[in-house]
Specification:
With 68 residues, the protein is mainly beta. The protein is elongated. The chain starts with a strand and ends with a strand. 0% of the residues are buried.
Length: 68
């Protein structure tokens, strides 16, 4: 699935890998996409506990659609 993602006030096009299923009158869409913090003007998270943090993250989502 291709769309736009807005983080920290910055919008970028993203491609998400999605899987959908349907049961009765409910549709469920689950997906993931990879993002670079730097693409959205976000500094990589810093942590005293971790030696280093990468510039990327995986965004996961689940959408549930039910007939009204």
């Amino acid at each position: 699935m291709i769309g736009d993602l807005t983080l920290h006030g910055v919008t970028r096009p993203v491609t998400a890998h999605v899987y959908s299923t349907r049961k009765d009158e409910t549709a469920i869409v689950v997906g993931t996409t990879e993002v670079l913090f730097s693409d959205f003007g976000i500094k990589s998270p810093q942590s005293i506990i971790m030696a280093s943090v990468e510039d990327h993250a995986t965004v996961e989502f689940q959408l549930i659609f039910k007939k009204a």
